Amino acid sequence: MIVYARGTDEEIPAAGVVLDTGSISDTGEMKGHPLMFYLAGEDIASVRFSCKREQLCFSDWTEKRDEYGNAQNFTVAYGEEESEYSYLVIDWVPNVLIRELTDHADSTIANLPEEMRSDVIVMEITFGNGEKMTKAITVSLLEDGTFYAALEDYRISEADAFVRRPDSEVIPRDILYAQGSTPAAPWTAEQIEGAKQAALDYYRNTVFTVNTIEYTEEAAPYGDVEGGCSFTVNVSRGGVPQEPDRRITLQMEDGGWKVVDEGY
User: Fold this and answer.
1) 209, β-bridge pairs
2) What is the residue-averaged pLDDT of the chain?
3) 5 in helix, strand or coil?
4) Where are the beta strands (DSSP E) in the chain?
5) Pick from 173, 171, 165: which is nearest to 73 by CA?
6) In what order do the strands lie in the sheet with 68-71?
7) For 104-154, where are the alpha helices, taking DSSP H only?
8) Domains of the chain, each with CATH number or no CATH
9) Which residues, in sequence order, are bridge partners of residue 61?
10) Confidence of residue 125 (pLDDT cuts 50, 70, 90)
11) Is pTM beyond 0.85 here?
């Protein structure tokens, strides 16, 4: 089995490679996709992905499979059509890392602890003949803001509690692409305003100043379309507008709004 970086189609080998598809600055601004990848191989029946620290998004560009957004553990059915494998795309989303840099004015890449600058994506691969293989992609943030990734054999140990987490909720395709668009959560204008105020309260405790905040009718990335209320937010840091816009998603819990995701 081979892993390729989407965008450059460069193989991610055991020796490792510096990725040039995305980067992060000391202020937490992310450009591109630090690690977006796909698998190649013969007769892959399924792959279970487990991400230790950050989150993964899974998209099927053949539009045949259900998808996952901002998930940590999930299983994808691959099947016999090997020509489809390159269209099954996994995007590693370092939201925890970004929040650490954006929410703390004194944080820089160089002074982050090593464990925060690195992550592991375990892949439990089952082939059509029943054979199994376990691989892992290790990804590390370098001090210049670029990322280094390597593919290695992996043996799951008792210490790997993150692999034993239950799979995340799937985003069904009939919801994702109903009538060619993503349906909005059924929030009233009053509820949306309440979520907006909670989002503004969240940003008051960060290094950002909100310039504009707009409700978006796209499905929440947490997978429960009816459970999330999302906004697109343009912010400034130290008087300097930041690009691209950020996104914040809140869920209703115990009668109040709670931020469940924030980042690019």
Assistant:
1) 236
2) 88
3) strand
4) 2-5, 10-11, 17-19, 22-24, 30-32, 35-40, 44-51, 55-60, 68-71, 73-77, 88-93, 118-127, 132-141, 147-153, 208-216, 229-237, 240-241, 246-253, 256-263
5) 165
6) 10-11, 2-5, 35-40, 88-93, 55-60, 68-71
7) none
8) 2-170 (no CATH), 180-263 (3.10.450)
9) none
10) very high
11) no
Question: Which residue from 40, 57, 87 is spatially nearest to 264, judged by alpha carbons?
Answer: 57
Query: In this predicted model, what pLDDT tens digit does every residue of 196-239 receive, in sequence order?
Result: 999 999 998 888 899 999 998 764 444 433 457 899 999 998 88
Quote the distance between the C-alpha of residue 100 and its chain's center. Answer: 16
Q: How far apart are CA 74 and CA 151, in angstroms?
A: 19
Q: What is the pLDDT of residue 240?
A: 87
DSSP 60-97: ETTS-S-BEEEESEEEEE--S-GGGGGGEEEEEE-HHH
Q: What percent of the chain has pLDDT over 70?
A: 91
Per-residue pLDDT, averaged over 20-28, amounts to 89
**Cβ burial 156-181 (10 Å sphere, 16+ → b, else e):** eeeeeeebeeeebebbeeebbeeeee
C-beta of residue 35 within 8 angstroms of C-beta of residue 22: yes
Residue whose tokens read 């539009």: 63
pLDDT at 152 over 80: yes
d(CA 17, CA 20) in angstroms, rounded, equals 9
